[in-house]
Amino acid sequence: MNPDTFHKGRGAQQNPDNKFLEHRYETRDDFLEYMQAEGEDLGPGKTQYLPIFPKTIVNKVTSPDVGMNWSLNPYQGCEHGCIYCYARNSHEYWGYSAGLDFETRILVKENAPKLLEEKLRSKNWKAETIVLSGNTDCYQPAEEKFRLTRACLEIFLKYRHPVGIITKNSRILQDLDLLKELAAHNLVGVNISVTSLSEKTRRILEPRTATIARRLQAIQELSANNIPVNAMLAPIIPGINSHEVLPMAKAVADHGARSFSFTVVRLNGAIGQIFSEWIRKAMPDRADKVLHQIAECHGGSLNDSRFGIRNKGDGILATQIHDMVKLAKRQYFRDRVFPPLDNSLHQQYKKGQLSLF
What we know:
Elements (H helix, E strand, L loop, with lengths): L28 H9 L10 E5 L5 E3 L9 E3 L2 E2 L23 H5 E5 L2 H10 L8 E3 L9 H5 L1 H11 L4 E5 L8 H9 L3 E6 L5 H7 L6 H13 L4 E8 L8 H10 L4 E6 L6 H12 L4 H10 L19 H17 L25
Parallel strand pairs: 1-5, 3-6, 6-7, 7-8, 8-9, 9-10
Antiparallel strand pairs: 2-3, 4-5
Helix pairs in contact: 3-5, 5-6, 9-12
């Protein structure tokens, strides 16, 4: 495998060392030469789905600036391969790399629906929105095979419990029947990620995601069925999509989104190394400029851990992005409201049906 080879269809171009593991893996030059002589490739290979059976499935979110208190992730790792994804770092906790492993070793929580039902039936649980998914996309390609997200939505509907959804995949429309029923009780809100209006940019940033046209179509179809949609224009990456804030906001508004949110990219943990190598291969002509501008938004570093600032950035470039966001909200979202979900119904359905007593 030539180190300069660009792995098409994948985001990360390497497997950086896992900081939690004692041993490090090194690919020696003599081994690479042997592989080349034998006509074999040491590329990323096919995606593997690995079943796991956790003891709990609903996670408390303690970070004060992510906009949710509870999350549920049916899958760990994500085949979408978004190069900037903050969730990459979590794959290290499972003994894998945040790089190619994150995209090719997908952990499947096959008992997720059962664990969710147990949680919602618990006497100590009080209804509060649970978000699918706060970490990895619940409608990534694995959902086509395992249907865990659909099974969880059926549980939320059965127990009349509010659920939020974050995705960048139009596969969500396959569950339109359940989403319409949940929306009829004001129990669901959907967040669709739109990172660019350029297919060229989308393909290299997010290689295995739905096209932009299909995402906008999903926003339109969900909205037409009275399912509230918030568009996530995230992350905004200086020098790559920062010039698209206004056009993206107009596009999602034209397709029916009730609101939009944004973040400024930050490259925490292993993502700094992964992103830096990727951009030097994918966009060599502007790599240094983009990396310097990202650092400008975070006090000179690619990462920023300060709550309340880390996702929005500061400095001149970040201020310009904020100003464009304010203008977009005034122009395209002046009278639009994303409704709060209903927490009051669940208590009557603790046993899976309406209680009469």
